[in-house]
Amino acid sequence: MPPLPARNSTTPSLARHARLLDAVQAAALTGGWELDLTTGTLHWTEATHRLHDTTPADYAPTVDTAMAFYTEECRPRILAALAQATGGEATGWDLDLEIETASGRRLSVRTVGSVQLEDGKPARITGAIQELSARRHLEAQLRQAQKMEAVGQLAGGIAHDLNNILTVIQGHAAFLEDDVDAGSEPAASALQIRQAATRAATLVRQLLVFGDRHVPRPRAVDLNVLAAAMAEMLQRIMAEDIQVQLVLAPGPVFTTADASLLEQAVLNLAANARDAMPGGGRLLIETAGVTIDDASAHDAPDARAGAFACLSVGDTGDGISREALPHIFEPFFTTKSASHGTGLGLANVRDIVRQHDGWVDVRSEPGGGTTFRLYFPRAMAAVTPPAGASEAANALPPTATILLVEDEAPVRALARTILERAGYRVLEARAGAGALVAWEGHAGDVDLLLTDVMMPDGVSGVDLAQRLRGVRPDLKVLCMSGYQTGNVATELDRMANVGFLAKPFTPEELTAAVARSLAPPPADPAERP
Which of 76-80, 233-237, 283-287 has the highest mean pLDDT? Predict the structure, then answer.
């Protein structure tokens, strides 16, 4: 008979199994425990200690002290489950509860207990406790994503029609302002109409961004140029007791972005800053090219190392409370009254920056003002338009013939009036089929195709432009739309020399876009004498 193994020869195996069990529990964010109902002794595994931010060396659990980790709302539930189990009324429990750890962390946990019998009577309870906070966070993110998807579907469904309506409202309000005496009551009413329409258009654009329905049109953008233009505009619309200060980087700071979205982000931040300074103050807009190393990347959530273009908007206002700060980017969260805020502005800013592969860093102290820093990947070079290109567009005499294609009659009538007041000759059609008929009779006269992108007869604005350019490759094209899908944006980007005008637009925006589209291309420097 071979000799029996020594009594302690299983110790390495048991130790190995213990280490494996502890590693599995740690990976699963789960700990084990056992309560001896005879002696009242409570045993926790290492993983259970870690979950409670304790160690076996500094804490020996008992039923009473362990119960103190549960929040006041949860204690009656776990005590009732324990009483039923020890009294033989239940074989165990499975409860979702909340605990506060020794270090003050509040966690969602699932605790499971199973009664073990000896001689038919409850002798001990073994169980597990699992942290659910990460899962709860993922579930909340999923609910938020589903909510934003619903918002995006709603916004996408109404954006086209609503922006057409807002175009008409803005245009005719502008006509009223032009036709009445400046400073009169009708002029003031017309201004209020235009401002309300502009606010509604901004809200639609924000909803499209939230629902990922806005299709960015990225181009090379110098943040110095964008910030300077925004500062000049903001100084005109801010209260007289708010000073707008501009600090620009010494050289160009390029990024690849949709300039209209960056402008929207700055407007949202400026509106927040204005509301935070009811007694006046200073609004600071600053640009910088920065290089972030690995150590600095840990200073802000979502930050990473690399070269970035930074656009900052700061104020000297009330600051943000520590309680509100973690929630400021949540959609529909606001500390303002219902008449002054929708809770969309800052969430819109964050989503815009994330769409451009960047992040937002916010620093604020109650009573000490707030600074938002928007970081975007830096583009080290950009192709800039030749000097004088915009002046050439504005200086071009409006004598051209424009083929206007728009299915909404009020928008078509408004656009025609704007263009004819500017001196253009206008041919109009309701949709693609009508435009082809008008083209047949005036193909040689048309200088510009001004067309809506989405039309009802199966011939989109892009399709129409491609057909007409098949006959006249040099035809200039300006597309307009209140809402475009990703497929339409891709088709527009593939076509050379096609302008785009977003609805709603003002009369000034329409005439400026038409002038730019009709302007002759800049001369090639190599061809100049």
Answer: 283-287
Question: How far, rounded to the nearest angstrom, does the alpha carbon of residue 29 sit from its chain's CA centroid?
Answer: 32
What integer is the mean pLDDT of 240-254? 93
Are residue 126 and residue 181 in the same domain, yes or no? no
Inter-CA distances, 212 with 205, 323, 357, 438, Å: 11, 29, 14, 37
Lookup: tokens for 311: 């656009």
Structure tokens at 331: 């959609």
pLDDT tens for each residue of 16-59: 655 665 665 555 568 889 999 989 899 998 889 988 999 999 99
| Alpha helices (H) in 396-456, listed in sequence order | 409-421, 432-442
Same domain, yes or no: 233 and 367: yes
Q: How confident is the model at residue 1 (pLDDT cuts 50, 70, 90)?
A: very low
Distances from the Cα of 186 to the Cα of 15, 167, 416, angstroms: 88, 20, 24
C-alpha dihedral, 387 to 393 to 397 to 400, nearest 10°? 140
Q: Say yes or no: 183 and 261 in one domain.
A: no
Cα 152 to the center of its chain, rounded Å = 12
Query: Which range, of 105-119, 302-316, 474-488, averages the lowest pLDDT?
Result: 474-488
Are 367 and 478 within one domain?
Answer: no
DSSP state of 70: B
User: Is 503 within 8 Å of 453 (Cβ atoms)?
Assistant: no
Residues 233 and 318 occupy one common structural domain: yes
Distance CA 165, CA 409 (A): 11
From CA 176, how far away is CA 295, in angstroms rounded? 58
H helical segments located in 302-408: 345-355, 389-395
Strand ranges across the sheet with 476-481: 425-429, 401-405, 448-452, 476-481, 498-502
Residue ranges of E strands in 120-210 = 121-131
Domain count within the chain? 4
Strand locations in 277-369 (E): 281-292, 306-315, 359-364
Two structure tokens written together for 456: 């009802």
Distance of CA 424 to the CA centre of its chain: 40
Note down the domain range covering 167: 147-215
pLDDT tens digits along 314-335: 999 989 888 888 888 876 666 6
Please report, for the domain that includes residue 336, its CATH number. Answer: 3.30.565.10
Measured in degrees and rounded to the nearest 5, phi and psi for residue 271 equal -65, -40
Strand ranges, E, within 120-247 = 121-131, 219-222, 242-247
CA nearest neighbour of 361 among 351, 373, 370, 349: 373
Burial 271-288 (b: 16+ CB within 10 A, else e): bbbbbbbeeebebbbbbb
Same domain as 500, residue 474: yes
User: How many whole angstroms separate alpha carbon 86 and alpha carbon 303?
Assistant: 52
Domain assignment present for 463: yes
